[in-house]
Amino acid sequence: MPQNFGVSSGQREKSAIFGPQALQNARIFGVALRGGCGEHRRVRRLGKNHGGYFGETMDVRAVLRDLQAAAQEHGWSCESFHQTGGLDLWALHRPVKQPAGRVYLSAGIHGDEPAGPLAMRQLLQADAWPERVECWLCPCLNPAGFARNARENAEGRDLNRDYRHRETGEVAAHVRWLERQPGFDAAFCLHEDWEAQGFYLYELNPAQRPSPAARMMEAVAAVCPIDLSPVIEGRAAQGGIIRPTLNPADRPLWPEAFWLLQNKTPQVWTLEAPSDFPLEVRVRALVTAVQTALAHCF
User: Fold this and answer.
1) What's the helix, strand, coil split of the chain in %, to 5?
2) Of residues 228, 233, 210, 206, the one with CA closest to residue 218
3) Tens digits of residue pLDDT in 172-195
4) Quick one: which of 5, 90, 95, 219 has the most CB atoms within 10 Å?
């Protein structure tokens, strides 16, 4: 039976980043390091995912309460922009006077990918954001999916294929909320892949701006295996990084990242944790990637 996470609102998950650059990141974010550079080598696949995700689950209502409580405790504004099945879709905003940068993060668009919302919870509870970075978070875009432990929403729709036509209530409401926000300097979409051999990411960066992708992978490699396959999900990859060259206009179905790139930001990273590994490892990998990127971008 899958384990269930998020029952206790008092729970705190510790992050871990290792290596020389990790020490710098730790000073910036004020996190405690534990373990060692070889820690991930002791991590083994659970062998639960056969034809889909069969790992740990989370109590979505408890996690949503934790997210809202942590945001309010640290001075974030909270806005519910949609409700489905009695569950709110929250948008959180950390206002900053004269920001040096603006960042958007999302998670939980697939209800069988619990590491993303749990990583958001950890980031909010740690409250160690770069001082002059203004942040917007949508920490759980598909709460009805988590209530069913299913990738799709309650109507069986994959929300992360609906950002071109916006036929679902969740995506239509999300885009309306996004359209009211200023442009972002960078965006991060937190995901998991039940088939993955290790952590990997997609980078959408058509202007070829300076990228933290390699540094993210270096930091994550200390806490989670990296998928070093030359081809991942049918696309060429190098060092766990996929840099698609396709034109979103040619695709009939858009993920959130495509809409963001076309409308809100010049660069988007989609982070993919390998969900056949322990949940703690996947959460730590996503937190490490985000913290490392923010430390280097701003």
Assistant:
1) 35, 20, 45
2) 228
3) 999 999 999 999 999 999 999 999
4) 219
